[in-house]
Amino acid sequence: MASVSIETARTETANKRSKPNRLAPNYWPFVVPALIVIGAVIVFPWVFTLWMSVNSWTLGQEQTFAGLDNYIRLATDFRFWESLWHTLIFTVLAVVAPLFLGTLAALIFDAQFPLRGFLRGVFVMPMMATPVAIALVWTMMFHPQLGVLNYLLSLVGIGPQEWIYNRYSVIPSLVLVETWQWTPLIMLIVLGGLASLPREPYESAEIDGANAWQKFRYLTLPMIAPFLMIGVIIRAIDAIKSFDIIYAMTQGGPGTASETINIYLYNTAFSYYDIGYGSAMAVVFFVIIVALSLVLMMVRARTNWSDMETR
Amino acid sequence: MSSSFWKPTRRSFLAGSAALGAAGLVGSRPASAAVDWKRFAGTTLEVNLVKSPRGDTVIKYLAEFEALTGIKVNAEATPEQQQRQKATIELSSGKPSFDVIHLSYHVQKRQFEKGGWLADISGFLKDPTLTDPSLTESDFAEAGLTFAKDKDGKLRSLPFSVDYWIVYWNKELFEKKGLAYPKTFDEMAAAAEALTDKSTNTYGFVARGLKNANVPVWTTLMLGYGATPLGPDGKLRTTSDEAVEAAKLYQRLMTKSAPAGISGFNWAESQSAFLQGKVGMWLDGVGFAPPLEDPQKSRVVGKVGYGVMPKGPKAQAAATTGDGIGVTAGSQKKEAAYLFCQWVISKEMGARLLQAGAGVPFRQSILADAEVRKGVTMPSAWVDAVAASGKVSQLALPVIIPVTEFRDIYGVGLTNMIGGADPATELKTATAQFEPVLAKSEG
After folding, report:
1. Which of A144, A253, A271 sits opposite B415 (nearest CB)?
2. A116 vs A110, A119, A294, CA distance in Å?
3. Which of B80, B83, B92 to probe the A interface (max A CBs under 10 A)?
4. Closest Cα partner for A162 from B419, B250, B421?
5. What is the pLDDT of residue A22?
6. Minimal CA–CA distance to B325: which of B75, B38, B64, B61?
7. What are B66-81's pLDDT values in tens digits?
8. Which domains does chain A carry?
9. Chain A residues whose beta carbon lies within 8 Å of the beta carbon of residue B89
10. Counting Cβ atoms within 10 Å, is residue B247 exposed (0-12), middle (13-18) or buried (19+)?
C-alpha cells in the first residue's frame, strides 16, 4: 500500500511539473517586454495602417474619414490590377527559373570533380552582392547601345535587344537579374538536401537496373522535394516583395510595364503622398501575401517526407 | 579679435576673404557695412539640400559662411527624389528637423505654398540690417520671382538657380550632312531624320523617353505651339490641338530619329548617348553641359553647339525649371536661416555656380558681370545660349500640387506613343485620369 501511495504521489508531482500554470502572475514580468515590442512594432503599425486606409489623407492636406472609398477605388483602378498582374508574372518567373537552374547546379556540384569547392564558392558570389549595386551594373549591361550584352549577342550574330528599355522584354530581363542573384541560394538548399539523402535506395535501384534519369525522377526528386519546397517558399516571399532591383533599374517603366504592387504602393504613398490610398493598397497586399503563405505552407506539409513516413 | 573685425566693413571683409584664400574669386562680398553678419554667431542651423551640383557647391564653400557669421551649419544633401520625400514628410509634420530647405520650384512650389511650409521673408529682404543692398527683387529674372512669390505676392524663398531647356547639337555630324542648326520645329525634325543612319548607329535626336522624366520634353514642345498644360482659368489644356500637335512631334522625333530603347532613357542615358558622338541633337536642361566638355568623359569635346530652343509654329520658348532656397515656417532661427539663404545666392556663390557650369543664377547682375563671365569654364556658346534662353523663358511645368502625378500619368501616355499609340487618344485618356487628381488637390 505504502509503495502504491508513493507512486501516486510521484505521478501527481510529475503531472504538476509537466503542466505548470502558464497564467500564474509571477510569469507576467517575463512576458510584458515581448508584448510591448510586438505591440509597438507589429500591432500598432498595422492598426494605424488599417485606420489610415479608411481615411482620405494626402500629406499637406486635411485628413477626412473616407470609409471604404479607398478600397472601392482600388477595385476600379486599372493601374492597380495591372501592377498585380506584373507582380504575379514576376513572382512566378523569379521562383521557377532559379528553382530549375539551382537544382541543376546542385546536381552538378554534388558530383566529385576537380576545383569543385572553388567553383562552388564562385557560384554563390552573386548572392552576397548588394541588390542596388547589382541593379546599377546590370542597367549598364542592358544598355541598348553601350551595354556589353548586346555586344556579346552581336558576336554570335544576334541583333541588338532592348532588354529593360522595352515594355515586352522588361519583366523577363528583371527576372534574369533575380535569377542570376538567387540561383545560388536554391543550389545551396538543394545541395544540403542531396548530402542528406540515404545511399540504400540508390543501391537497390542500381540492382534493379534503373538508369540515371529513373534514379533522379523516382528517387532524388521525391526525396529532395521538401528542400525544393523550402526554396520555393523563400524565393516566393522574396520575389513578391522585390522592390530594390526593380526600382533601381526601371522605376516600374517603361511606362508602367514593370510596375509591381510594391512600386505602385511606394509611388502612391511617397511620390503622390496619398497615404490613405497607399495604406489601402498595403492592406490588400498583406492579405494576398497571407493567403499565398497559407497555400505554400499547406503544400509544404504535403511534401514533407518525415510526415509521410509516420502516416 | 576686435569687434570691428567681426562687424566687417566692405574693406575689412575683403581683406578677410583674401586671407581665407578667396582673393581669386570674382565679384564683391555679400556683406555690407550695414549687415551685421555676426549677429547670430553661436547659432546652429540645420540645412536640407538636394544632392546636385548646386548643393555640392554650397557644401564645398560652407566653411566660408561659418567663418563669416560664426553660425554652425549642419548641412545634409540627399538625392532629389529622396530629398523631396523627406522634406514633404517632415514639413507636413509641422516640426521639420531643418531650418533651411532647398526646393525644386517646378515640382514643389504649389505644394509648399498650400502647406504654408515656408516663412514669409519679404520683410527680411527689405531690412537693411539683414540684407545686402545689392540684393534687390529687381535683380532676379522674372521667372525666379514668379517661382519665389506666392499668390499674395509674399516672398517665400530666394531664387537660387535656373535651368533652361536648350538643344545640344553635334557640330561635326551636322557639318558632315551639310546641315545648319535648325531655326524651327520643322527644321529640327527634318534635320533629325537626315542625321539618322541606323546602319552606323547614328541618330538625329535624343531626349527623355522614361515615364515622368519625359513630360518636360513634351511641354517644352507645347510652348512652341503657344500653349501651356494649364490655362489661366486653371483648366487642363492637354487635349487641345496644340497639345496634340506637340505630342505628335514628340512621337515623330522619338520614333524616327532616336536610338532603340529610348522609352527607358532619362537624362543620364540621353547624355551618355550624346557623349559618344553618335547623336545629332539632345534636348534637355542647360545644367547637364559640363561633362560634354570633359575629355575624360566625352568624345565630343569642342564639337558641341549650344542652341536656343528653335521656334515653334507660334512661339519661341525656353522651358524653365528652377531651384530655390527658403526658410521653414517652423524654424525658430528664421533670421539666421535667412542670412544663410542670402549667402547661398550671393554674387560670389552665383559666380562659382556659373563658372563651374553647375547652375545658372537667377540674379541678372551675376550673368551680366563681365568679370564673372571671363571665369566661366564652359564655351562662350553655352553662356550665349543661357543668356538668349533667359529672354524667351517660360515655366516648363504647371504650378500645381500634384506635379508628380501629372508627370507620371502623362509620362505613361508619352511612353505609349513611342510604342506607336495614337497621341490624341493617349492624351485624352491621361487627361481623364488626371482631372480628378487635380480637382482633389485644389479642393
Report:
1. A253
2. 9, 5, 38
3. B92
4. B419
5. 58
6. B75
7. 999 999 999 999 988 8
8. 2-53 (no CATH), 72-310 (1.10.3720.10)
9. 59
10. buried
Q: Assess whether the previous peptide bond of A254 is cis (omega < 30° from 0).
A: yes
| B164-319+396-442 has the same fold as B3-163+321-394 | yes
Residue type at A270 in one-letter notation: F
Nearest by CB: B114 against A60, A160, A162: A60
Q: Give B363's DSSP letter.
A: B
What are the domain boundaries of chain B? Answer: 3-163+321-394, 164-319+396-442
* φ and ψ of B78, to 5 deg: -125, 155
CATH code for B164-319+396-442?
A: 3.40.190.10
Residues 6+ apart with CB under 8 A from A77: none
Kindly determine whether residue A253 and residue B210, on different chains, have CB atoms separated by under 8 Å.
Answer: yes
Tell me the chain B residues in contact with residue A252 when contact means C-beta distances shorter than 8 Å.
211
- Comparing alpha-carbon positions, the chain A residue that sits nearest to B259 is A145
Per-residue pLDDT at B2 exceeds 50: no
Q: Tell me whether 0.85 is exceeded by the ipTM.
A: no
pLDDT tens-digit map of B14-28: 444 444 443 333 334
CATH code of B3-163+321-394, in short, is 3.40.190.10
- Facing residues of B307 across strands? B167
Nearest CA in chain A to B262: A165
DSSP 8-state class, residue A159: P
Longest Cα–Cα distance of chain A, Å, equals 96
C-alpha cell at B155: 516672398
Long-range interactions of A169-176: CB distance < 8 A, separation 24+: A170/A250, A170/A253, A170/A254, A170/A257, A170/A258, A170/B264, A171/A86, A171/A89, A171/A90, A171/A93, A171/A257, A171/A258, A172/A93, A173/A142, A174/A90, A174/A245, A174/A246, A174/A249, A174/A250, A174/A258, A175/A90, A175/A93, A175/A94, A175/A97
- The string of DSSP codes covering B296-352 is TT-S-TTTEEEEPPPB-SS---EEEEEEEEEEBTT-S-HHHHHHHHHHHTSHHHHHH
